[in-house]
Here is the input.
Amino acid sequence: MDGKKMPIDIRSLTPPIAYRLMTGIVVPRPIAWVTSLSAEGVLNLAPFSAFTFVSMNPVLIGINIGRKAGVRKDTEVNIRASGEYVVHIGGFADRHAIHESSAEHPPDVSEVDVLGLATTASDRVEVPRLRDAPVAMECKLDQIVSFGRGGSEFVVGEVLLVHAREGLVKNGKIDTRALDPICRIAGPNYASLGEIVTMRNIELAEK
Ligand SMILES: Cc1cc2nc3c(=O)[nH]c(=O)nc-3n(C[C@H](O)[C@H](O)[C@H](O)COP(=O)(O)O)c2cc1C
Here is the structure.
């Protein structure tokens, strides 16, 4: 290895080409698997891997939602209107349902019904949650912030209640092996966790 790198003038790339590059660079990404309710009461389900947490006091998580041909996606339309949603974390075993739930359907078609997924009532929001996902986080919309020229919007919500599958939380910590979270890489490619290593504990003052 001679350490040489190829400079890529990212500002000269078209948005789809930049997207292809960036989704290969920012990896692996967790997936927010989101249920939301339309004004007509249709339960929508879609995956979003531009996903992270943004605050711990209160606990806020964010997903970046782009546009489809300039039009807002159903998830964002629903969250804007109702102010509520549920973010699930799927396991590697959920990969088929997660991937298929990204297929485009008209707003009156529920991806949950199409995929035959079981749901159950949530406690703090009207939006039902997926019964069998390892983790479900009931969320209330905090704010939506627009970025760039393509209509991307960062949707930030407060986590009101967390449901974790039995046995997943031990001494307040998630058993990551038991969660077996699905990771997204570029395109229709996914990964599971490889080796987990434990390093020395460095106290971080990041609260
Ligand atoms: C694993 C995965 C991750 C995705 N992540 C995002 C994302 O972060 N932001 C986004 O706008 N679309 C993302 N998509 C595409 C949306 O899931 C897709 O546009 C979906 O149809 C939106 O559904 P809706 O219109 O019902 O909200 C992703 C797709 C897949 C398969």
Notes: The CA atoms of residues 69 and 150 lie 10 Å apart. Residues 31, 44, 46-50, 64-66, 68, 73-75, 98-99, 102, 104, 184 surround flavin mononucleotide (CB under 6 Å). The first helix runs from residue 15 to 25. The chain has one domain: 13-191.
